[in-house]
Amino acid sequence: MVQLVEAAQLSKALVQKLENKISRVFVPEVVVVALPAWLGWFIRGAAHQYPRTWIPSGMDEFELALQFGISILVVACPCTLDLATPTAVMVATGEGASQGVLIKGGSALENTQEANSEHPISTAVVEYAKKLNSKYVLGSVPLFV
Q: What PANTHER family does this protein map onto (predicted)?
């Protein structure tokens, strides 16, 4: 049982594979944007093109520029997605196992599609999708699943 839970926690969900593909392109682009931002703030600060009062006490132009560059990396970097998905899968499979429910990994969680969720917003979305299905059924194939 423990080995099954560990295997489920280590498996990659389909959305995580997509995030990895996006990250391969997006992360270098974010770095390419962050470096000129840092350099621009540093050069303008060294040339005294903005008021000294903009720089917090105990800092110099270099540190202020570095804060702007790092801020771009932190806000735009999708690393949080790369950490959030496996963490959510690990927590869900672990919590399920502690309650006697074996979840076979991220793909199994994705296949549930939250259709039986008790969350009010999820319930509202599912109800709306059901109304649309009954209204716009093409033959026997529903538009929304």
A: COPPER-TRANSPORTING ATPASE HMA4 (PTHR46594:SF2), P-TYPE CATION-TRANSPORTING ATPASE (PTHR46594)
